[in-house]
Write a structure and sequence with these properties.
By secondary structure, this protein is mainly alpha-helical. The chain has ten helices and two strands; from the N terminus they run ααααααααβααβ.
Length: 183
């Protein structure tokens, strides 16, 4: 253990970026529209990659995507997308970059992402009581339902596993294991 504080196993690491993310952000209720959109976008970017890879690029993403200003991103044109695809600081996957722009346009159409996401839990986080990390599912009936609804609305990179990871990251679901000091 890097220190004597009990953490979820994935956060109990010498990697200070991962540990700090676990300790200060993951599972904490977030209602900030930009941060919610950032995390939805980053969780989509993570598909097929490790979270540590994405976390190391988080500041690059923030700079590349105008501080996650949803209205600005929704207005990106082909030249801005081409510029993003040349940015080595982010994952240069055309489908993932296009998804961020498309999802911003979708949020503009449906209204605040905060209202949409938190409405599924009546504004109150779901606190699970897992004993081990292995018990934590990759998807749940809740993430299945939200994913299905998001896809109907037009969201891209919104499969149930991505949605569940997003719900965990922004504290809609608290999946810190029992005994974790950051539950």
């Amino acid at each position: 253990m890097p220190d004597e504080i009990r953490r979820c196993p994935w956060g109990d690491t010498e990697d200070t970026l991962m540990r700090d993310y676990h300790d200060t952000f993951w599972g904490k209720p977030c209602f900030d529209e930009r941060v919610l959109f950032e995390m939805l976008s980053l969780d989509g970017a993570q598909a097929g990659l490790s979270w540590s890879t994405i976390l190391r690029k988080r500041e690059n993403y923030r700079a590349a995507f105008d501080g996650w200003d949803i209205a600005k991103i929704a207005a990106y044109d082909d030249s801005k997308i081409a510029e993003l695809l040349q940015n080595s600081g982010i994952i240069r996957n055309r489908l993932k970059v296009n998804a961020v722009v498309h999802n911003a346009q979708t949020v503009i159409k449906i209204g605040p992402l905060c209202n949409f996401i938190w409405s599924y839990v009546d504004g109150k986080p779901l606190i699970n009581h897992w004993q081990t990390q292995e018990e934590i599912p990759a998807a749940t009936p809740l993430s299945d339902r939200i994913s299905k609804d998001m896809k109907k609305l037009g969201f891209k990179f919104a499969g149930s596993t991505i949605v569940y990871s997003f719900l965990q990251s922004v504290g809609v679901v608290n999946d810190h294991i029992e005994g974790c000091a950051f539950k």
